[in-house]
Specification:
Layout (H helix, E strand, L loop, with lengths): L8 H36 L1 H12 E6 L6 E2 L5 E13 L7 H9 L6 H13 L6 E7 L1 H9 L7 E10 L7 H4 L2 E3 L2 H5 L11 E3 L2 H5 L1 H4 L4 E7 L5 E8 L6 E4 L3 H11 L4 E6 L6 E7 L5 H4 L4 H8 L9 H4 L9 H9 L10 E3 L2 E2 L8 E2 L7 E3 L1 H7 L2 H11 L1 H10 L21 H7 L5 H7 L10 H12 L10 E5 L6 E3 L15 H14 L17 E11 L7 E13 L6 E7 L5 H4 L1 H13 L22
Parallel strand pairs: 2-10
Antiparallel strand pairs: 1-8, 2-3, 3-4, 3-5, 6-7, 8-9, 10-17, 11-12, 11-21, 13-16, 14-15, 17-18, 19-20, 20-21
Helix pairs in contact: 10-23, 14-16, 14-17, 14-21, 15-21, 16-19
Length: 626
C-alpha cells in the first residue's frame, strides 16, 4: 500500500506569502515608475509637450506686408503696389468641378493654359487648400464673380497687392523689377526670412534695396481642426510696410531723354558732379517690366531676348563701348602732369601719322589734315594725329595709370547690382593675355580705339570728376529712405574718392578751358549745340569706329557709335552727362543734341531756350490700372 505524504501547510503558506511579497514589491515599483514618468512628463517636460500640442492645434499664417514705394526726386511714383483680385477654388467644397469651371468660364476669361496650370496646382495641394484658378481679374470680372458667389460653391475672391510700374518702362534700367521668388533663389537667401513673401527684386534698385523695400512680415495664429481646416483666428500681428525710396532721378528729365533716343539702341547717364547724384539713367530700347511681376509668357520673353537691339541689356551699367575721342581729355590731363609736356607747342597734322620705321598710316578723321595744332586746338577740333603722337610719347603704362585715377577699369560703386568694370589694357592685363603689345596698339588706344572699353556710367563719372575739380564722387541713385510710419528720412551721404594726382596747379583749369572750346569755339566739333545757350558748356565729342564680326560681314566697317560727354555751367557745374547712340555716326550730330536738351531741362526747366515763364514739359500720365 503506497504511502501518501501529508501536506506541509506551514511551508506552503510561507511560499505563498513570499510570492505575494515579491509581487507586491514589483507592483509597487511599477506604480512608482509610472508615477515618476507621469511626473516627469507633466512637470519637467510640460512646456515642451504643451508647445507640441499647441502647434498641432494652432497654425501660424504669414501676412505679407506692402512693398515700399519707389519715387523720383519730385515724388512721382515709379513703383507701387496695386490691389488685384484673385479667383481661388477649394476642391473639397466643390460638388462638381467640371460644372463649376463651366459656370466660371461664362464670368471670367479662362483659356486652356489657365486650366492646365490650375490642374497642375490641384495635384500639388491638399483638397481642403484653396488653389488659384486665375490671378488679376479685371474690375468687371471681379464684379461678375462677386455677384454670383452664392451660386459658385467652392469659389472665392481674394484681394492681393501686386507690384506695378505705373509709367511702364520709364527708368527700368535703374529701378529694375520684381518677380515671383523661386526655390532656387531661396537657397541664396535666408529662407526663413522670406516665408510668406511672393516677390523678390531681380534687378536695379528693386534688388539692391530688397531689405529696405520688403518690410517685415506679419502673421495670424489660426486654430485648426483635426483634418487641418481653419476654424478661427486666435491672434493677429500686423505686418510693417517696406520703406519708401526717393531717387535722385527726375522722371520728366528721364522721359525726355528716352523720347529723344526714340527706342534707338543707346544710353544716357547724367550726374550731379558735386554729390554724385544720378539725375538720369537711360538704357534704350526700353521695355515694360510689368509682365515680369507674375511671370512673363514664354513667347513674350523670347521676343525680348532675341530682339537684335537688346532691350534687356542694361547699356548704362553694363554696356562696353570704345570711347572714341571722348577719351582724349583724360589723356590730355595725364600729359599735363608731365614736366616734358608743353601744351602750347605746335605740331603739323598732315592727315596721317606713321610710326618710325613703319609704312602703315594711321589716318586723321580729316583726310587733308588740320595743319598747325597745339593741345587747345587738338581738343577743340579733335585732332587724331596730335593724340597719336601724344600716346606714343606717354606710353601705354602712363596712359592707363591715369585712366585708373579717373575710375576707368574699376566699378564706380553705384548702388545698383551687376556693374561691369570695363577694360583698360594695363600692364597686368597685357601680361595675362599672353600676347605681345605692339606700338600700333598704343597709337590707336590714344584715340579711344583698340582694346579699351568703358561703360557710359564710367564716362559720366570721369567727366564729372573734371567738372568737380578732380574730386570723384560715388554715383548714387537713391536719395533718401523714408520710414512709412514715422516719416523719418535717412538721406544717403555723398562719398568722395581720393582726389586726382595733380603735379601742375592749373592743369584742370586749362583742360576745362580747352573742353569749353569744343562747344564755344569757332571750329569746335560740338559748336552746333551752342546757339542761344545762356550758360557755357564744356564737352567732347566722340565717334567710335566699329567692325562687324557677324558671318557674312566679317571685317566690314559698319556705322560708328556716336558719343558725347559734357558738363555745365562751366563756372559752377551742376550736371555732367554722357550720351552714347549706337550706329548713329558722328557724336556731334546724334549725341550732343540729346545732351543739350537734358542740360536745358535741368538748368532752365525746359528743353529749348525760350522765355522762363513757359511751363515744363509733362511726362505721360500714369495708367490707373495694370
Amino acid at each position: 500500500m503506497p504511502i501518501i505524504p501529508l501536506k506541509d501547510h506551514s511551508q506552503e503558506l510561507r511560499l505563498f506569502e513570499s510570492r505575494v511579497l515579491v509581487a507586491t514589491v514589483f507592483g509597487v515599483l511599477l506604480i512608482l515608475g509610472l508615477i515618476t514618468r507621469l511626473g516627469y512628463l507633466q512637470v519637467v517636460k510640460h512646456r515642451y509637450y504643451a508647445t507640441l500640442a499647441q502647434d498641432n492645434r494652432v497654425s501660424p499664417v504669414p501676412i505679407t506686408p506692402a512693398r515700399g514705394l519707389i519715387l523720383d526726386r519730385n515724388g512721382v511714383v515709379l513703383a507701387d503696389d496695386f490691389p488685384v483680385f484673385t479667383l481661388q477654388v477649394t476642391p473639397d467644397q466643390v460638388p462638381n468641378m467640371k460644372r463649376l469651371l463651366a459656370k466660371l468660364r461664362r464670368l471670367v476669361a479662362l483659356n486652356a493654359q489657365d486650366i492646365r496650370d490650375f490642374q497642375r496646382r490641384l495635384a500639388q495641394h491638399k483638397p481642403f487648400q484653396s488653389v488659384t484658378l486665375r490671378a488679376h481679374l479685371s474690375e468687371a470680372e471681379a464684379a461678375r464673380v462677386a455677384v454670383n458667389l452664392t451660386r459658385l460653391t467652392g469659389a472665392t475672391l481674394h484681394a492681393q497687392l501686386r507690384r506695378y510700374y505705373p509709367l511702364g518702362g520709364l527708368a527700368t534700367a535703374a529701378i529694375g523689377y520684381v518677380s515671383r521668388i523661386t526655390q532656387t533663389e531661396l537657397q541664396g537667401h535666408n529662407a526663413d526670412r522670406y516665408v510668406g513673401y511672393r516677390e523678390i527684386g531681380q534687378m536695379g534698385i528693386e534688388k539692391s534695396y530688397q531689405n529696405e523695400l520688403m518690410g517685415r512680415i506679419g502673421y495670424k495664429d489660426v486654430e485648426m481642426d483635426a483634418r487641418g481646416r481653419a476654424v478661427k483666428v486666435l491672434k493677429r500681428i500686423l505686418p510693417h510696410a517696406g520703406h519708401n525710396l526717393y531717387l535722385n532721378i527726375d522722371a520728366q528729365m528721364q522721359a525726355i531723354g528716352e523720347q529723344m533716343l526714340n527706342n534707338r539702341p543707346g544710353t544716357v547717364v547724367a550726374l550731379n558732379p558735386r554729390t554724385g547724384a544720378v539725375l538720369t539713367f537711360i538704357s534704350s530700347p526700353i521695355y515694360d517690366p510689368n509682365p515680369f511681376v507674375e511671370g512673363i509668357r514664354e513667347k513674350a520673353y523670347e521676343a525680348l531676348a532675341t530682339n537684335p537691339d537688346g532691350p534687356l541689356d542694361n547699356r548704362a551699367l553694363n554696356g562696353l563701348y570704345p570711347p572714341g575721342s571722348t577719351i582724349k581729355p583724360f589723356y590730355a590731363y595725364a600729359a599735363l602732369q608731365a614736366p616734358w609736356f608743353h601744351p602750347h607747342k605746335h605740331i603739323i597734322c598732315p592727315g596721317y601719322y606713321h610710326l618710325p620705321h613703319s609704312t602703315h598710316l594711321f589716318h586723321c578723321w580729316r583726310p587733308l589734315g588740320m595743319g598747325r595744332v597745339d593741345l587747345k586746338s587738338a581738343i577743340e577740333r579733335s585732332c587724331d594725329v596730335y593724340f597719336y603722337r601724344l600716346a606714343v610719347k606717354q606710353g601705354i603704362n602712363r596712359m592707363t595709370r591715369y585712366l585708373a585715377d579717373f575710375g576707368f577699369g574699376h566699378r564706380t560703386g553705384i548702388d545698383l547690382p551687376g556693374e561691369y568694370r570695363g577694360l583698360v589694357p594695363t600692364q597686368a592685363w597685357i601680361k595675362a593675355s599672353g600676347r605681345p603689345w605692339y606700338p600700333g596698339q598704343t597709337v590707336i588706344t590714344g584715340i579711344g580705339q583698340g582694346p579699351l572699353l568703358v561703360t557710359p556710367l564710367q564716362l559720366a563719372d570721369a567727366v564729372a570728376t573734371i567738372a568737380n575739380h578732380g574730386i570723384r564722387m560715388r554715383p548714387e541713385v537713391v536719395r533718401g529712405i523714408v520710414n512709412p510710419v514715422t516719416h523719418h528720412v535717412r538721406f544717403r551721404k555723398p562719398h568722395a574718392y581720393p582726389a586726382l594726382p595733380r603735379r601742375r596747379k592749373n592743369s584742370l583749369k586749362r583742360l576745362i578751358r580747352d573742353m569749353t572750346q569744343v562747344v564755344e569755339g569757332p571750329r569746335g566739333t560740338a559748336r552746333g549745340i551752342a546757339y542761344d545757350l545762356p550758360y557755357k558748356v564744356a564737352g567732347k565729342t566722340g565717334t567710335a569706329q566699329l567692325w562687324s564680326m557677324v558671318p557674312g560681314y566679317k571685317g566690314q566697317h559698319i556705322r560708328s557709335d556716336a558719343l558725347f560727354i559734357a558738363f555745365a555751367p562751366v563756372n559752377h557745374p551742376r550736371i555732367a552727362i554722357a550720351v552714347v547712340v549706337e550706329h548713329a555716326g558722328f557724336g556731334a550730330l546724334a549725341a550732343a543734341p540729346i545732351a543739350r536738351a537734358l542740360m536745358n531741362f535741368y538748368l532752365l526747366g525746359h528743353v529749348h531756350v525760350r522765355p522762363q515763364n513757359q511751363s515744363r514739359p509733362e511726362i505721360a500720365q500714369a495708367r490707373t490700372t495694370p
